[in-house]
Amino acid sequence: MIKTDAKLIDELLERGVNEVIIKDQLRQKLLSGQKLRIKLGTDPTSPNLHLGRSIPLLKLRDLQQLGHQIVLIVGDFTGVIGDTSDKDSERPMLSPEKIQANMAQYLKQAGQLIDLDSCEFHYNSEWLGQLTYNQIGEQADQFSVAEFIARDNIRRRLEAGSRVSVREMLYPLMQGYDSVMVKADVELGGTDQRFNLLAGRKLQEHFGQPPQNIIMTELAEGTDGRKMSSSWGNTINFTDEPQTMYAKVMGISDDLIIKYFILMTRCPLSQITEYEQAIQGGANPRDAKMALAKEIVNIYHGQVAADQAEAYFIKVVQQKSLPEDIATIALTKSDWPIIDLLLDIKAVTSRGEARRLIEQGGVKLAEQTITDSQLLVKLSAKPILLQKGKKQYWYLVAE
Known about the structure:
The chain is an alpha/beta fold. The protein has 19 helices and 13 strands. The strands form three sheets. It has a six-stranded mixed β-sheet with strand order 1-6-5-2-3-4, sandwiched between helices. Strands 7-13-12-9-10 form a five-stranded mixed β-sheet, with helices on one face. Strands 8-11 form a two-stranded antiparallel ribbon. Residues 86-90 have low confidence and may be disordered.
């Protein structure tokens, strides 16, 4: 049963959406009761999905709940090649073994947001791995080099004298051909994917299919204010432990609270407006941020875990008069010599500074003063508080 509620459809086309191609046309299709095929592709460039990836996934769920056929593609083939749409340098090729390891839990993680039982699922190696040079040449003939290098990040790299490989030019063809193979009516993606999404329209027309409509969602900043990206380690992951997830959300900039509510939750817009008006009226942003952190933990871990994470934060942070905007840093390994750890998180600028700081009693871990500069710190998924001097704090976790 296809739902054609105009209010739901208008919110779907506007909430967290930067651009729709072609909006009036797609709105009419959604109102018509026609069952559409909605495509979303994701490359397994890291083992964990993060909240940035949740933005199109939640939009996919919205369309699924309206009764449309969602099609999820895990790019086991495109992931090897690598998409540099949002990158300032050439992305290294990943080995097939690395791709397999990364995508081991992708479906399970995506299933936290979408109904996998009614989802059509594909690996794009099903068709991309079978293409011949003749077929690739036919696809490539639909695009010019000028179109490719006109993209902002590619143009900047060329102007700076940086290398741009021919391999990078193949990625839009592959993502576009995915749309041909699944006969997509609509494709979802972030604003950084615009060229690749439009490539799908062009290739569909070449192969005699109606060109897909496109919904481009806004991008979200991570815990350090840059675009959320596994490459930068500034992510809040679906798999983060509840306390870690809550603490990471509490560490984001206050000016991201409303954006996170809109993009990463499905709290009613009227409620989000109330939070926004309260902040503008002088209310402490902390209260809205705590509501946001609790809601996000609830989505991925359930209400009980969300309540416990909030209680832990109140007990450990607020009641001990710690700052409320402590950054959470996720590190890729669990065992760290204390000096290496201080250098890695940029708490110090040299090994000598680290030793002097420790000798002077200026470093605390879990509220215990560190006196041994040879200490081996063991991190886990549970946040541990590191303090430098009297005013600098970090929560540290091992991914």
